[in-house]
Amino acid sequence: MIRAYGISVVMASFASLAVAGAVQREYTLVNDGKSDAVIQMNPRPTAPEFRAAVELQDYMKRISGAVLKRSTYPAVHSRVVGDNAEFVEILPASLEYARLLVPESVRERLTQSSSDDAFYIKTEGYRIFIVGKTPIGALYGTYTFIEKYLGVRWLHPGVDGEYCPTAKTITIAAIDDFQEPAVARRYLNCYEKSVEPWTLEEVRTWQMRRKMNFNSRYQYPNRSREHLDFYACGNDPVFGGGHGTFEASVPQKEFALHPEYFPWRDGKRICEERSQRCLANPEVQRRVIAFVTEMTAYGARFSVSFHDSSFKNWCQCADCIKMGTYNGTFTGANLAHRFTSLVSAAVLAKNPDAALDVDMYNVFRDLPTDPGIRYDNRVRGLYCPHQRCYIHRLEDPNSGCNTKFLNQILEWRKLIPKCGIYDYYSVAHSPYAPMEYILAQDIKFYKQIGLDNWNEDACNTSPMMASNWQLYYVAAAMLWDASADVNDLMTEAYNAYYGKAREPMKQYHLYRRELWEGAPGHVAYGGPDRINHCLTVDGAEKRLTGYLDEADRLAGGDAALKRRIATDRGYLTRFWIAGAAKLKGLKSGQNDIPVSRRQGTLSLDGVLDEEAWRQAQPVTGFLTPEGAEPTEQTRIKVLYDDEHWYVGIEAMTEHAWSALKSEAKERDGDVCYDDSVEILLAPPESEYYHWIINSAGVFYDARRRDPAFDSQAEIKTRVLKDRYVIEARIPVKPMGVKIQDGQVWRIHFWRNCTNLQPPKATESSAPDGTGPHNVILFRQAVVGTPVLLNGSFSELADTPPEALAKGNLSGARFPARWGGNNARLIQGTHNKNQVELRNGLLYGFLNVPLTEKAGRLIGTAHASGSGKLDAWISSCIRKPGDDKLGFGHEIRHVAGSWTLQEKSSALTFTVDLAPYEAGYLYLGASDNALIESVAVTHTTR
């Protein structure tokens, strides 16, 4: 039995909302699988009204098996009072049709609402009124009735995303429920490929049911009546413009006869794929205005925008420069928004009802400096925060990474009152990431500042929508009701979605969130793959798969539930497990040991809770000396500043058989026999230094094996239930060195575990399983900003067939991101690979940031052999906007020339670069050379 919501759940709270004085009663829609209730329709229904009646009829049947009649004849004429006291009429209708039938309170409230999406669900007499201010409001009210009062849930598109209860009897308590959206327009920008494994129609149907907007592009010809009615329920007019504004209004074919319509660059008019037009040209303005006016004549929405391009494709003729200049300073924002404000004003003068958008995007995202550039209040703005971080909420006062975007949108909100945001959650390299919690906070803020619309670029084909369905479920719910609680939404969703497997799956997703929020790095359009770091926590993969195994067991023979759990397992494997494996295999590319400069302050207290620790990448790849995965996991992070190394260690003790052993009580005692972790640091061209630290904070320090060395290190430890934590601050002054950009240190760790289950009570582990004193096998750590990827040659790729055919490279594998002549890979153990050159050449690209500041390259190559080894940089200068020129070997810098020795040595070099200069590093051997590693960092000067 369904009573108001869910199986056997009485929604008494809704009854309490009834207007004082109204008759309190229950409405039996279905009794033991039978129904006399009628769905009263508009005799001439619009597409949304017709769909509302059909969907209500269909879900009533699916829930109870009863078929409610649909009638277009008012029941008041056929109803015999007293013959059927249980008779109920459900009236889904727009205010226009039902204005004489609905209670006065409903009519007044809807009339006063500023939203066409508003609806009112109210029981009175024998009727359940579902009245929308407009037909689309009636459809939204009907879907809300089906969801809120019948218990149906549309969690994601497709058959597995729907929860539909079953009950032979459905009784509804008295209802008085007015709703309007928190954010006026609510969009997902997606297409066929980005919504797989669903179809686009399944996604559009889900959007409709979740009260989100979509449209049918005006370019689609010969659509059926059924198609047009379906898209009429998307509640948005057909759309045009955007990046195609100029290709439609002033197409490239015009260049032959009218080059003056096209941009002036470097002394001539040009016409390329993404060339903007000459915005100051009166004929260009006239054509765009005429085109937009025609497009909006039938009610289409038009976005007046520009190509997605850098400013090199914009016109720089004298008139355009003048158009973009205010107080003697030219800006692209002035030029762009003077043009779009001019066009929008002219269009609105001809068509006052035109639906117009303008974009704040790319090079025209900044605000114009000219206060005279204004927009009509009928124009809608769309702010696009590229590179905004989605691990922090937009208005997070502590992160700082989104401050620019926050300030800009607040200023745009003043300039364009109907301002919205175009978010990029889907293209932030984060499939299967629980980002819905940040989105929930963002939406509350969007509501607070009065944003008019929310758009999400869900065009990622990863598949983002399917793996992150929770994000879009929360978006739909909170864009309608920003007061909703995201935790309540997800608890309810998981209860419905996972049924009898709900408990382990709720724990599974809770732990996924913990791992995601604890991972290092930011999340942005084109940013890093943060998901790769989620499983670097000790035992995380095993714990997650354990939850899935338990859920699968509880699912029993429920095929739909098993599919849902299998889908989660598939995404965990595809994105998180594969990403972690990739990260482990790359070992941070050039940096074998990932190190980063300390940001902010650190309190040495044995608690790794500062942002610097959270952002640091963990050291991975611990193995026993036999090459097996250790019983206990170890997670280590390394930071530095100019004078110190900082090491944070989490030594897991989840499999402890006895108490931690910490018998060493004095400095430089036998700490290695305790449960302990060892740190080994080797400065460039120096001996190594050694620390052993037990869980009580007692430590041994030595230069090589000489404990007389006083490192002046500061150590704090903390023992927790499932781990012990070590936080160490190690100064480098006692080592007689400084930490400088370009240095290549060697760093190693060794874990001693003494409290496992007998008979194998002890175990040792280390990165690559390497012992604690073999310095040549320590991993490298490069100080500074590395610009040469895979300098340790640990990442391998198949040798290109053409390189093999020409004899440039030999062997089936070669270091990824490297090329050469007369070069071959010598593959070693523990990923300690080398490249042999026989009168040959090795080269790699330098990923130098192109800025207006002059730069400096600081490099080190470790090599041995005979003959000479020469190093040089082959480069060119390319300012932003010069990318059509391509790379050219136009400048040559001699980096160094060395006579190789039988013993490997560090060959260092420094090269100064001009602003916007980048290129390749070349190493050339006159005889035989064995290159062990190459590191290059970049600084400004």
Task: Describe the structure in brief.
With 941 residues, this protein is of the alpha/beta class.
Question: Your description of this structure?
Answer:
The chain is an alpha/beta fold. It folds into five domains: 2-179, 2-Layer Sandwich (Chitobiase, domain 2); 185-246 and 285-311 and 332-483, Glycosidases (TIM Barrel); 506-586, no CATH class; 595-782, Immunoglobulin-like (Sandwich), CATH 2.60.40; 796-940, Sandwich (Jelly Rolls). It is built from 21 helices and 46 strands. The strands form ten sheets. Strands 37, 39, 40, 41, 42, 43, 44, 45 and 46 form a nine-stranded mixed β-sheet that branches. α13 (436-448) runs parallel beside α15. The protein is globular. The termini are far apart. The model is unreliable at 5-23 and 586-591 (pLDDT under 50).
Question: Which overall shape is indicated by the principal axes computed on the Cα atoms?
Answer: globular
Assign a percent range to the helix content: 25-40%
Mean of all residue-level pLDDT scores: 90
Poorly predicted ranges = 5-23, 586-591
> Largest sheet, if any?
9 strands, mixed
Strand content bin: 25-35%
* Number of distinct beta strands: 46
CATH topology of the largest domain: TIM Barrel
Number of helices, where a helix is a run of at least 4 consecutive DSSP H or I residues: 21
CATH class wording of the largest domain:
Alpha Beta
Please tell me how large the radius of gyration is.
Answer: 34 Å
Distance between the termini: 75 Å
CATH architecture field of the largest domain: Alpha-Beta Barrel
